[in-house]
Amino acid sequence: MTRENHARALLLAPQAMRASGAARLQRMGLVVLGVAAFVAMCIDLKLAPEAMLAGMDKFGQLTAGAFPPSDGGDLPRILKALAETFAMAFAGTVLAALAALPLGVLGAKTVVGQPVLHFAFRRVLDWFRGVPALVWALILVSAFGLGPFGGVIALALADVPSLAKLFSEAIENGDERPLEGVRAAGASPLMVLRYGLAPQVTPIMASQVLFFLESNFRNAAVLGIVGAGGIGFELEERIRIFAFDQVFFIIGLYMICVAALDTVSQQLRKRLA
Fold first, then answer.
1. Cα(237)–Cα(231) distance, integer angstroms
2. For the chain, counts of helices (H) and of strands (E)
3. Which residue range or ranges hold the ABC transmembrane type-1 domain (predicted)?
4. Distance between CA 108 and CA 171 in Å, rounded?
């Protein structure tokens, strides 16, 4: 904005162009409160430079012992664990998508128009969405024992409410004109969903499922650390015995697998868009 335009705007709308003293004081107060809250959190969490410097020496020693990375002669076992981790992520994602599909249909305003039921259903999904996969894994491993079964169910339980919410939003944003056309042809409500709505939302839902598959492949490694199998279990074993050369080898191999899966998933999502 030029100086002449600014002066003209100031004459036409001085309140909009020049903040009042009270408004400036309020903004300054909010900034001061935000900075004070951040400092208080850092103090409470002991985020001091001394703590960082104290840990850097030990971190340097661990890093020095990690080179050169080595598979420790267990490459077949590591590859098997990686395959198990992907299988956990894939199975958990498929189970979550199958369970979330009917829940997403029920959670859409265009399907269930009763406001009270819709509100209650969405709040239940929000409540379950607050439980992360790691917490589910801890509970399920305690119930069913060590192994990938608990990890698969934990991933599915953590994904179902989020996918159901995304599915319901995709259904709500669907174009009404194809639905009206199918209804005008005398189709049943099920056929309306099948031929009027499904072609619109299926690519969106498939893209969302692929994105959750990427995320679950990363999360599955964390679940393995608490006993849910997969590559996380192999990492936990080697960290416990300070075999950081093998830890870095597994991390590097895992990063390559994650990057490859992300690339494939991204290409598939582009085709579905």
1. 10
2. 13, 0
3. 82-265
4. 6
The verdict on 26 and 129 lying in the same domain is: no
Q: Residue 108 — left, alpha, or beta (φ > 0 → left; ψ -120 to 50 → alpha)?
A: beta
> Same domain for 155 and 35?
no
Q: What total number of domains does the chain contain?
A: 2
Q: Tell me, yes or no, whether 29 and 124 share the same domain.
A: no
Determine, yes or no, domain membership for 62.
no
CA-to-CA distance for 204 and 199, rounded, in angstroms? Answer: 10
First to last CA, the chain: 39
What local confidence, expressed as pLDDT, does residue 129 receive?
A: 84
Does 100 lie in the same domain as 35? Answer: no
Q: Both tokens of residue 252?
A: 């590097």
Residues 106 and 15 in one domain: no
Tens place of pLDDT per residue across the chain (273 aa):
566 665 565 555 555 545 556 777 888 888 999 999 998 888 887 777 777 777 777 777 777 777 787 887 888 888 998 899 999 999 999 999 999 988 888 877 777 767 787 778 878 888 888 888 888 888 888 888 888 888 899 999 999 999 998 888 888 887 777 777 877 877 777 777 777 777 788 888 888 898 899 888 888 888 888 877 788 888 888 888 888 888 888 888 888 888 888 888 888 877 766
Q: Are residues 95 and 225 in the same domain?
A: yes
Cα–Cα dist 180/153, whole Å: 39
Residues contacting residue 87 through CB under 8 Å, at least 6 positions apart: 148
Answer yes or no: do 216 and 131 share one domain: yes
The answer to whether 105 and 193 have CB atoms below 8 angstroms apart is yes
151 found inside a domain: yes
Which residue, chain included where needed, has tokens 């199998």? 229
Q: Are residues 21 and 141 in the same domain?
A: no
